[in-house]
Amino acid sequence: MEISVSTTPTLLIVDDKPANIALLSDMLEGLADIYFVDDSTKAFDRALALQPDIILLDIEMPGMSGFEVCKLLKNNPDTAAISVIFISAHTEAEVEFNSLAFGAIDFIGRPFNRAICRLRVQKHLLLQQQAKALLESKQRLYAETQRLQVTLNSIGDAVIATDTDAIITFMNPIAERMTGWHQADALGQPINEVMALRETENKQRVTNPIILALKEQRIVAMALDCELVHRNTAQAAAVEDSAAPIFDQNGKMLGAIIVFHDVGEAKALATKMSFLANHDQLTGLPNRILLHDRLNQACRLATIIERKVGVMVIDIDQFKYLNDSFGHQLGDELLQLLVKRLQTILEPDHTLARTGGDEFVLIYPDIMQIEQISNLAQNICRVVRQSFEIRNKKYNMSLSVGISLYPTDSSSADELLRHADLALFKAKQEGRNRFCFFSDEMGRRMLLRHQREQALRQAVEHDRLEVHFQPKVSLADGSVIGAEALVRVRHENGSLIPPSEFIPLAEETGLIIPLGKQVLVKSCQQSARWQQAGINLPLSVNIAAAQFTDPSLVGLIEHLLQDYKIASQMLELEVTETALIDNPQHTASVLAQFRNLGITIAIDDFGTGYSSLAYLKQFKVDVLKIDMSFVKDMLVDKNDYAIVKTIIMLGHSMQIALVAEGVETAEHQAALLALGCCYGQGYYYSKPLAADDFMQYLKAGK
Ligand code: C2E
Ligand code: MG
Ligand code: MG
Fold first, then answer.
1. How far is the CA of 471 from the centre of ligand 3 (A)?
2. Which CATH superfamily is domain 460-699 in?
């Protein structure tokens, strides 16, 4: 039954005497809307219909007594709540007692004291109104609580409530499921016990946000990358959300509530979405969006560390033709194969992106020398030239590549892409299947280098390397005590190219390995010839740093000594200081193997590199070759003189033999001798000579 609080209360007077009714109505005027009934048998129906706040009920009435009416009222739930005040001329205590025992709230005796009677009714009306309001509040509260309960039980988020000490007072079914705790067990437990949070990365425990919310009396969001450990399975689920304190109407904190949900799936979905947004579906490569991001980042970093960023725009030549003639399905497969092949030669810091049907962009960050990117471009063109096989059929393709460099020829990421595009256009115009630089100057440089590399490769392949020999002499009497093998390349036009023009290139391109092998072979062949002619001269051969990385080096030398029957003391290896420093452990082990074979080791160009005393001791070298730059000016430059003198003293004290390079005059010879250096080589005695000339030189000396 709905009960509403009307602003004006209602009052029903039940009395068989109209005079009494009139008197009461008059007395109570203004307190309520007053109704009456003088037939007691109709009182109940009237009360039921009217639902008054109070009934003033006369006890002595014909038909039905007041007590009987009251009994009816109290026995019916629809009228039981109506307050009854009995009225009677019998003011004895017994009557009053019976009245109250019947369920009345009061008893008023006749004759009435007007003021007291009015006041009493007024008080009761007020009480009745308040009781009604209270009941209504209770009902509203009950409905509200029910609604809340249903909501909390059916929402998808987990909810836990605690008191001000972070002790759990409530948890909803989702919270039960996520924590693995039943509410019955969790009630009275501290939040940290039930809701075990830790950091996703390092698995460190995290303070529950509810504790912070209580402490700081504010809403606290849960730290990102937080996970909740399940009580029974110990499995962790990524969660997020927040805790908030709750206050009563006076602002007093009552406790706090935390609401959280599983974000594991959301995260996985987000990751997948972000991957899809940034990658090409066919090849899985970054798309244009990610490319721009990476490129901007690479340029920013390059500016800071003062390096270059290279961009290649790569386009498949005549891809449309392939697609049209063999179908798009095959075109797609070819693209996938191409990407796979390219990835075999890319470094982890390169970004290869697909920017169009058959167009790719490659970012090469952190470039020190532009050769790095031209080498890669060359490699890319090379690996693609080998045919691709799909279902036992071979397909050939070639690429055109345009290259631009930041900040060399482009000043921003956008310009890099534009310029590389222009360079690509140039490559296509020049006949495809090639790479072009945006900058002509760079293009020329790279072309020249490419030509040189080709020439050197051919010289190595076509046996156009020659070895010349420079005598090493005893400074005291000029007698030849050995020779140094020095390589030259015979140009197709017959001229000789000095090593300064090709050794650095050979080192960069790796050609130094086959080149060095050939020099060793040719040197040993010459040494064998000398032996046959009765000449026993130790021969020094230069070994580049890169050759130490060749695992076949020691074996090769061992075999050469055996094959040509050369005593190991007849071979000396000249090593630069950088070779020792680059990879000291490995070099030390290789040098130890040479020593075991009986081969001597000389440090070439000593004084120009690290000149570390530590490694002289560590590597146990036999000879120091004083670099010619010091010898050249030792008579005019005090510092150079001091350096030469110091190196000689060092050699003496460490019992390492000394050979001065670049002895060009008799004065050099005399000064070096005076300082205690016994051996030298230089133009004063002889330039490096072809084998026959060297023989002549020896004969002439004899
Ligand atoms: P290096 O090993 O220090 O060789 C000495 C260089 O000084 C030779 O130059 C030689 O011709 C030059 N030289 C000798 N005496 C004089 C002199 O009195 N005055 C002047 N101005 N120069 C003199 P070259 O033959 O041009 O070789 C240059 C460098 O090339 C060599 O320096 C060596 O580092 C490298 N090299 C030569 N042949 C080989 C080789 O077979 N393998 C490797 N890895 N490097 C080699
Ligand atoms: Mg040398
Ligand atoms: Mg030298």
1. 13
2. EAL domain (3.20.20.450)
At residue 276, does pLDDT exceed 80? Answer: yes
* C-beta of 499 in contact with ligand 1 (< 6 A): yes
Residue 530, classed as helix, strand or coil, is helix
pLDDT-derived band of residue 4, with 50, 70 and 90 as boundaries?
Answer: very low
605 lines ligand 1 (CB under 6 A): yes
177 close to 202: Cβ distance less than 8 angstroms: no
> Rounded to the nearest 5 degrees, what angle is found at the Cα of 112, between the Cα atoms of 107 and 118?
75
688 lines ligand 1 (CB under 6 A): yes
**Ligand 3 ion: Cβ-proximal residues, 5 Å cutoff:** 604-605, 661
Ligand 1 atom closest to the Cα of residue 519 is: 41
Instruction: Give the separation between CA 51 and CA 77, rounded to whole angstroms.
Output: 12
Protein residue with its CA nearest to atom 15 in ligand 1:
682
Q: How many A from CA of 540 to the centre of ligand 2? A: 8
pLDDT digits (tens, 9 = 90+) for 643-686: 999 999 999 999 999 999 999 999 999 999 999 999 999 999 99
From the CA of 488, give the closest atom in ligand 1. 38
- The Å distance, Cα 604 to ligand 2 centre, comes to 5
Domain boundaries, the chain: 10-137, 155-268, 284-438, 460-699
**Segment 158-194, tens digit of pLDDT:** 999 999 999 999 999 999 999 999 999 999 999 999 9
455 touches 490 (CB < 8 A) = no
Give me the CATH topology for the region 10-137: Rossmann fold (3.40.50)
Q: Is residue 316 a contact partner of residue 397, using CB atoms and an 8 Å limit?
A: yes
CATH topology for 155-268 is Beta-Lactamase (3.30.450)
Q: Is the CB of 616 inside a 6 Å radius of any atom of ligand 1? A: no
**Model pTM score:** 0.54
Amino acid letter for position 679: Y
**Residues measured by CB to lie within 5 Å of ligand 2, the ion:** 542, 574, 604
Residue nearest atom 5 in ligand 1 by C-alpha distance: 661
pLDDT digits (tens, 9 = 90+) for 132-153: 889 899 999 998 988 888 888 8
The topology under which CATH files domain 284-438 is Alpha-Beta Plaits (3.30.70)
- Dist. CA 252 → ligand 1 center (Å): 92
Supply the pLDDT for residue 151: 85
- Spatial CA neighbour of 297 closest among 342, 339, 349, 347: 349
Q: Which residue has the tokens 């952190």?
A: 366
